[in-house]
Structure formats: structure tokens, C-alpha cells
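Section 4.2 – Deliverable D4.2 (structural model, holo form)

The reporting period included a commitment to supply a predicted holo structure for the target in complex with pyridoxal-5'-phosphate. Inputs used:
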Amino acid sequence: MSGWKISLCAPTPLTRSTNQRNSMQNRKQQSRGELTESGDTAPQEFRKQLHELADWIADFRENIEQLRVAPNDQPGAIRAQLPDRGPDDGESFEKILGDVNQLIVPGMVHWSHPMFLGYFGWTTTDPGILGEIVTAPLNVNAMTWRTCPAATELETVIIDWLRQWVGLSDEFGGVVYDTASVGIMHALAVAREEAAPATRKLGLTGRDLPRFRIYTSDQAHSSAEKAAIALGIGEENVVRISSDNEFRMDINSLGNKISRDRQNGLQPMAVVATVGTTSTASVDPVPQIASVCRENKMWLHIDGAYGAGFAILPESKSLTSGWSEADSIVVNPHKTLFVPLDFSVLYVRNLERLRRVFTLVPEYLRGDTVEAEKNYMDYGIQLGRRFRALKAWVVWRSLGRAGIVARLREQIRLANLLASWIKEDDRFELSAPVNMGVVCFRFVAGIGDAVPGLPTAVTADQMDKLNSEIVERINASGRVYFTQTKLRGGTVMRIGFGNVLTTEQHLRKAWEIIQETANDL
Ligand SMILES: Cc1ncc(COP(=O)(O)O)c(C=O)c1O
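Output (C-alpha cells):
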């Protein structure tokens, strides 16, 4: 870690002597394994630790640019510095926080660093940190309304704010899960129940059931297969449909695959359309896919994990076309709408369909479920649930709709700015249309273009290696972090915006580093 240290805040003079006495006593008790009076840290000591932590967090945010974006360690380097066995005696918070500085912070990829341009740039925000901190002491289990009315009711309200912001009709109700992968699994469990009634009770085996099929594009996320694995549909029954030259699902190919499967006695069950694919953020033709689903009585799930959040922009309303025809849609505010990981919302048209598949009230919770309010444990496999809505509430109230819109527009502006620089440099080319905050590009210059006298012909394989090498070298330098992906079999570089700390200046620096590295290679 380069030159950055936490500062420990000094207690105020008035309380210093009491604090010091308490903390020394508390530490002695902890290290002897004895309980303090309350079974927890003594109040004065805890207050002091919180102040230290507040300073630590503020310093971390303020000085993050001094850190490497990513470590360049070999696997196991961090583990080697950690004890193999848990401590027998308690240790002081100062020591633990010191180890966070020495061992953990340098061993991290700093997703909140302004030069982190990888994946979907899930951002850290100051309100997000405050939201997490407020949630920590409350630490409730939001499984039923009775176990925490505020958590349940706030979740319902937050889900509805988001629904309105992205322009989803009020036929849709939602539930908060950790991730979109869990969301799609629940959505397809309902699709399965509707295609094969009583699966919830009887399972899939020993019954005269057809082989079910799920269709999604060759650009879609692997969470479709993961869901098929978990639901007993089978990974091979997820049929990948080819995409067009802008990486959108080819609708004719979808129709053909469904017809062929029907002729072969297989049963088409669901289509997963994507709004914002993982590699290029392309958007599938949802209205046409919806017609296919209607004709074939299939479930339509929209994976809007990344892209659906952009529907909050008035100028991006076209993203929502066809959504009213969907059965389910997943939106990840932890990707696009500034809520810290993890926070994903699954909407289902007529949410009761989801409840019917998952409601199960054990005797020991029956008394907790007499009220007519929602019990979110009924809407998925999870019983214990975090109070996730609180952090979203803090973030969305802090930014407001206007603040969210302004930040998303800035991401789009930066993505288009980078694209314009790429177009100006004829050694590089864009590999896909720029969608939302994602730019895919490729170094294409022949060797002789950069080094006169050498042959210009470079095989596709060599060019793939070169592009990959640019990304690897830069990431290993710790100055910028971004990723690579494959498009139509070729390796391309990919930058994803999302981090609120990334400015045009950072982007310019990153682009210079990419150009220099390509030159060096
Ligand atoms: C389009 C898309 N869908 C789903 C997912 C899975 O999201 P999660 O990590 O929330 O499960 C991703 C992850 O990046 C994604 O890009």
C-alpha cells in the first residue's frame, strides 16, 4: 500500500481518562476470555472504536487514489500471512484494524477506486456506506412482518419506488434478494410450476413429464444455466440462440429452435431476454420475444440485472418496450442504482404466483404469520433475511431521482467520449455498439504499423493474445483495472463505467495507459 495510513482519532480531553481506563480494563478482560459487564464491549470503549472507524472510513475514501487498484500477488500470498487457527483469546480492535490495513487492504481489488473500470463498475457511494452502517446495529431478521414490521414495510415501499422509476406497471410486485442469479432461479421455479403443475409437491421425477426447454441468447448471462441446474431442468436444456451483428437475440432463430424442439417432443417453457448483456450491454428485441412467448404459452423472464436501471432516464424509456408482456424481470440496483452489494429485485407479474410456489409456514412460525401483511419468507427459499431495504432507502433519499439520473448520464457521456477517442486512433476499433456504460474495443494495428519494417500481417490468434496481454499488463501494474471478453470468438478489451469517483480526467489517464501499453507491446 503506497504511503496511506489510517489516522486514529484522539478522544476528547474531557473523557480521555475514563476512556483509557475503560478500554484498558476491557482489553484485559477480553484477552483473559472474561465477559465484560454486558457481554459486549464496554460502551465508552465502543464509542471510541466507532470514532476511530469513522476516521478510517473517511480516510479510506479520501485517499483511495493512492492505492494500487489491484494487487499483483500470487494466489495464497494473503493466506500465508494469516494464522491457520482461530485465536484462543480475544484481540483488540486496534490490532484487528491494523491488520486490515496491513493484510487486507493491500490484497484487494479496489472496486471503489476511480481507475477501476472493470465489469459493471458497481460503485461505492458515501450514502451507501452510511446505509450499511445504520443497518449494522439494527441487525434484524426480516423473515416475517412480525419479526420486523419496519423492514417488511420499507422493503415493500422501496420495491414500489423502483417499480415506478423504471416504468413497470403496477401489475408487478417484487421481492429483494441478494443477486440476480437467485432472482432468475425463483422466476423459473414459477415458470416450471406453471408448465408442470404440482412440481412443488411431487418433484419432477417418476411422472410422465416432457423435457422442458429454456431459451436465451448466446450473449446472455450464465445464471440461466445455473437456475436450470438448481431446478432440475438441466443445463443442456438451456438453448442458446444466436445473436445478430449488434449482439441482440435473433428472433427468427428463436422461432426456429422452438418449432424444432416441439417437433421433437420437447416442451418450450421459458425465454430469458436480456436488457443489458454482460459483454456489450446489448438489448434483446423484447416486444418480438414477448409475441413468441405469447404464441407458445411460455414464460418471459427479462434479465435487466444491469440494463433495467437505466430505464429511470426519461430518454431511455425505449428500453422498457415489451416489459408489460413479461412474467418476471430482475433489476440489480447494486449494479446500476448506487446501492451497495447486495441488492437485487425480482418483479413478478401477479406476485401471488411466486408466493404460491414458495409459501411454507412451519409450526414454530405460525403465530408470527397471522397478520395480513406480507411475510417475505413466503417469496423464496430464504428464511432469514437481512434488512436490505434500509441501505437502498438511505442511498435513494440522499441522491434523489435527479441525482441518480445525473450520475447515469455521466456514465453514458464517459462511455461515448471513450468511444470517440477509440474512433480517432486507427490502431484501435470499437468491437460493439456503445450501450449504456459499456465500451468494447480491440487493438487492431499490424506489427508493422507500429514498428516500420516489420510485416503488418498478424494472425487473428496473435491479435487475441496481444489484446489479452494489454489488459493483463495494465491490471498487473495496479494503475487501472479493466477486463477482456470474447466477441464472435475474438478477444476484446472492455471498459464498464459505474464508479461515481471516475472522472473524465481518470478516463483520459486510463486511455493514455492503454495506448502506451499497446505501443510497448
Ligand atoms: C446480464 C447479467 N445478468 C445476471 C447477472 C448476475 O448477477 P448477480 O451477480 O447479481 O447474480 C449478471 C452479472 O454480471 C449480468 O451481467
